[in-house]
Design goal:
Layout: H1 20-29, H2 31-36, H3 45-52, H4 58-65, H5 69-82, H6 94-113, H7 133-149, H8 157-170, H9 188-195, E1 207-210, H10 223-237, E2 244-247, H11 260-270, E3 279-282, H12 288-302, E4 310-313, H13 316-322, H14 325-334, E5 340-347, E6 350-355
Parallel strand pairs: 1-2, 1-4, 2-3
Antiparallel strand pairs: 4-6, 5-6
Helix pairs in contact: 1-8, 3-4, 4-6, 5-6, 6-8, 7-8, 10-11
InterPro entries: DUF218
Protein name: YdcF family protein
Pfam families: DUF218
Length: 370
């Protein structure tokens, strides 16, 4: 009688495991695509053959995974047939939202899978030079990781999202998940305070303080951000607003580990004695446009009224820029709307700002800045 082979000698079967980074990043960057689940795979036969023909050639697999105009049209058609109705913005049709997220997914594949320049090449892109074997290897590993983590056919939306997120993870481009759940952790104290604040007792509902990167990976806080902290502490001590919102991600220089908002908050609390529950963290904005947009989102999430003005407190150069036509045009180009209305100037450092609910739109034109 032959002894049965031990269980460990058999090939291990794939087991689904939860990955908080992947799950959170997928939900933040591709909320509508994730809600679709798996559309009928028969719809994507052409895609399946295109991807299969690449074998194990990483660049070919990435190129074949990109969603063409024909692919995207099939998604919309399948959506209609399946009756799936993922939640969308009230002012954005579902089909348009899905198409935007597919294009955002394509951006990730092109920039981090093929090494093509993105919209902001100074702060986005692979960590390895694209002309080195390290880049090709990182792409191959991302493909292997995506396939090991999901049993979805490579031609499906689910598999494409998993691949895009694996590419971001391989390049440490996962800042959008770092502080989640943001308002239940970092901003929990401010949320409690906001619920019992008498807003009429203050001239402004909020002081908005954008960060400016040091352009040096070894420097935690730039001289300009230090000035911002000082100015904000002074305005807070004057009683102009009950909260200070600090905004800025780990952006400048590319590859820095220091988050602008975190370092400004640290200065406010440790250097100037501002109560921690009076400082709201917004650690995701990567540009001045999204400093203002994301400030509005945090206000809504924390129950801070939008019908009262805020005060933008920053250095003279950035303050002047926010007031300029150039900045207005940039908002319209990159966001598709104005995140609010710039009001009176109080000083070279201080601008009134009335937030707009348009900032609540989900717009994946820049997939790393959801």
């Amino acid at each position: 009688m032959t002894a049965a082979a031990p269980v460990w000698a058999e090939a291990p079967a794939p087991v689904a495991v939860s990955d908080t980074v992947v799950d959170t990043l997928s939900e933040r960057l591709f909320p509508m695509l994730g809600a679709l689940g798996r559309l009928p795979t028969a719809t994507f036969d052409t895609r399946a053959r295109r991807i299969a023909a690449c074998g194990d050639v990483p660049a070919c697999v990435i190129e074949a995974t990109i969603w063409t105009d024909q692919d995207r049209a099939m998604v919309v058609a399948s959506l209609s047939k399946s009756g799936a109705r993922p939640k969308s913005n009230a002012d954005l049709p579902v089909a348009a939202g899905i198409d935007q997220e597919l294009e955002a997914l394509n951006v990730v594949l092109r920039v981090y899978g093929l090494g093509l320049p993105g919209r902001y090449p100074k702060i986005d892109g692979p960590i390895f030079a694209t002309d080195t074997p390290f880049f090709a290897d990182s792409v191959k590993v991302a493909i292997d990781t995506a396939r090991a983590a999901s049993d979805a056919p490579p031609s499906t939306i689910a598999a494409s999202v998993r691949l895009a997120v694996a590419l971001l993870d391989a390049n440490d481009a996962t800042a959008a998940t770092r502080f989640e759940p943001l308002d239940q952790r970092e901003n929990a104290g401010a949320r409690t305070r906001a619920a019992r604040t008498d807003w009429k007792a203050f001239r402004y509902s909020l002081l908005i303080v954008p960060g400016v990167g040091p352009e040096d990976v070894g420097t935690t806080l730039s001289p300009r951000s230090k000035l911002h902290a000082l100015l904000a502490a002074q305005r807070y001590r004057q009683g102009l607003a009950p909260f200070i919102l600090v905004s800025g991600s780990a952006v400048h220089p590319r590859g820095t580990r220091f988050v602008e908002a975190v370092e400004i908050r640290r200065a406010l609390v440790e250097r100037y004695g501002i109560p921690a529950d009076r400082v709201i963290l917004e650690p995701y904005a990567r540009h001045t446009t999204t400093n203002l947009r994301n400030a509005t989102r945090r206000m809504v999430a924390l129950g801070i009224p939008l019908d009262r003005p805020t005060l933008i407190v920053t250095d003279a150069e950035q303050s002047k820029y926010i007031e300029s036509q150039t900045f207005t045009d940039r908002n319209r180009t990159e966001l598709g709307y104005l995140p609010g209305a710039v009001g009176r100037r109080l000083s070279v450092y201080d601008l009134e700002f009335q937030p707009s609910r348009l900032s609540l739109r989900h717009d994946p034109r820049d997939p790393l800045d959801p």
